[in-house]
Amino acid sequence: MMESKSKMRISLIILVLIVQVHMLPFSQSKSIVKHLPGFLGDLPFTLETGYVGVGKEEKVELFYYFVESQRNPHQDPLLLYLTGGPGTSAILPLFYQIGPLNFEYTNATRSDVKLEVNPYSWTKTANIIFIDLPVGTGFSYAKRWESSKKNSDSLVVTHAYEFIRKWLMDHPTFLNNPLYITGISYMGLIIPRVVSNIYDGIERGVRPELKIKGFLIVNPHTDKFIDFNSRTEFAYRAGLIEDELYEPAKEHCGGKYIYVDPNNTLCLDSLRPIKECLDRINVVYILDPLCNRQDPKQTCRESIYSYSNIWANMKSVRQALNIREGTVNQFQVSNANISSLFGRPDTIYYSHDIFSSLAYYKKLVTKNCHALIINGDHDMTFPYMGTKQWINSLKLGVQSPWKPWFIRTQVAGYEKTYSEAKFSLKYATIKGAGHSVAIYKPEESMVIVETWLASHNSSTS
């Protein structure tokens, strides 16, 4: 009898050890970061970093930064933020745009990168998860080579949905926070599908039930024809091309300036001088000079991104962020093998297989869902002209007509609100902003988001 009990104890101990070994990677997949190289003293906010395994057999490990709201983290909205590109690291929005810290340029050198508090961080009133997505972006990695090759827009949708479900299961205290899927640029093709998947999951009874309230997209890429085609009309309205160039193109091309029929020589001929006028325009912000990032003598907004490459490749930074050794040898703020350019074919690493997200907007119109779409009015990447066109195609009712919105009595931009049953969509422009609006107009970016979130949530300070 004693021998039987002894064997049972040994079996139980072995079982516990096996369970602990299997749980170990998951239990060690997140950590609180209290200090960051380049910032003096303790971080004045709660920062967590970690990994979430997704995909078949969790062969893909997605790295994230989670910043708790600096107001009321257990009641304030939870935002999952998807960075554009695709292939641009979450470090970009976290340290250049909407996060609680910024790279400080005035007193920094390329060998001594400094961080400072961002007074216009969205995390003042919201919890935000910044994620390196898709795999191959930032510090996210695949456990097997084939998992890093087989990537696409459609797979990003699947991974984003799986990520937020698993993250919330591991962070149950945030399960009841209002959830918003947010992001910028190329993620305009991705986000509506992720949100639609969440609503579909709720209707199927998938647990845990996500408290989805809506989505927010800055300068969204929504439809590959509408967005790129609208650049010509935008350039005309912005005074970059004259009537004598625009009118013949409009007539001969019939308003279709891309994917032109090669037999339509009149259209092609009329587009050549327009192309010459726009070739040296900085599309992300038409008032800035065109930047050559490879020229060490040139200083421009885009060249400052090199700070993040230097900082994120420092051993002390990787240790502070708890990056798994041997997973990403060389950090790059943007993965050129993944990123999208107009007319660029797919690569062996990535398939840009979503042409438009408009069908999913039409699905979401039937849900209890709130959307905020923001355009910088000096962005020619995905101009406001195209955004207005696809919004109009939804044929929503107008709840509030076009009007200015203000900061301290000054016009900050313009807004218009649409609604259909329980669905609402606010469209807002930010005056004088380019593609990444928070870089050009940080306060305006923060205020419009705070105001919109507050209008749909009852969080108290």
UniProtKB/TrEMBL annotation:
Similarity section: Belongs to the peptidase S10 family.
Gene3D superfamilies: 3.40.50.12670, alpha/beta hydrolase
Name listed for the protein in its UniProt record: Peptidase S10, serine carboxypeptidase, alpha/Beta hydrolase
Highest taxon listed in the record's lineage: Eukaryota
The UniProt record lists the keyword Signal: yes
BP GO annotations: proteolysis; secondary metabolic process
Gene source species: Helianthus annuus (Common sunflower)
Record-level Gene Ontology MF annotations: acyltransferase activity, transferring groups other than amino-acyl groups; serine-type carboxypeptidase activity
Span of the signal peptide: 1-23
InterPro entries reported in the protein's UniProt record: AB_hydrolase_fold (IPR029058), Peptidase_S10 (IPR001563)
Pfam families registered for this protein in UniProt: Peptidase_S10
Record's keyword terms, sorted: Carboxypeptidase, Hydrolase, Protease, Signal
